[in-house]
Write a structure and sequence with these properties.
The chain is mostly helical. The chain has helices spanning 19-32, 34-46, 50-55, 85-97, 109-117, 128-141, 146-153, 158-177; strands spanning 61-62, 67-70, 79-82. Strands 1-2-3 form a 3-stranded antiparallel sheet.
């Protein structure tokens, strides 16, 4: 009996970009729009959702302690995530240029989504949440603990975060198949 016969819906694995693909997209954005570059870099290096990005204010970034407070994320919960050094430098320069204390990214989710779509020149099927998936896979590939990733992503259930292990398993198999055993 397969999953369909048992009444269980098979869950498809999320798509993600490898680190080189992300770098290529970010390089294109940096050349065309500094604002787009900062938005996509923040999505990739923080793992935040697009709605969370659109709600960031200057006060959410604690440069001294290297933390970002994500307010009212999914499930209306606040969480604190580490601020990666390069992203901290980038956001530091960006926030220094801001005169007000309002939103860092004063645009809607739809506007960010449309801005990201224009960088899909390699048929990568770019969309904002793809950066979140790519963040998660990159963290696991570099040895991050699954429970830590769960906290950063704001998942209430570890089962939700475990889906990324299936993606890592596929990569491990592909790498394993490259080994010459003769």
């Amino acid at each position: 009996m397969d999953n369909h016969d048992a009444g269980i819906k098979a869950k498809t694995l999320p798509k993600y970009l490898d680190k080189e693909e992300v770098i290529n997209v970010l390089d294109r954005a940096k050349a065309l729009s500094y604002f787009d570059y900062i938005c996509m870099t923040t999505l990739f290096r923080s793992g935040c959702r697009i709605s969370e990005l659109c709600n960031f204010i200057k006060e959410d970034i604690d440069f001294k302690n290297g933390l970002i407070t994500i307010r009212q994320g999914k499930g209306r919960k606040d969480r604190v995530v580490p601020l990666e050094r390069e992203l901290g430098n980038l956001l530091g320069l960006f926030t220094d240029a801001l005169k007000c204390r309002d939103k860092l990214f004063p645009v809607t989710s739809r506007q960010i989504r449309n801005r990201i779509y224009k960088y899909d020149t390699d048929a990568l099927h770019l969309y904002p949440h793809l950066f979140r998936h790519s963040f998660a896979v990159n963290c696991l590939k570099n040895g991050m603990n699954l429970r830590t990733l769960q906290k950063i992503l704001g998942h209430s259930s570890l089962t939700t975060t475990q889906i990324y292990l299936d993606l890592i398993g596929k990569d491990i198999k592909e790498d394993f198949d490259k080994v010459n055993w003769n």
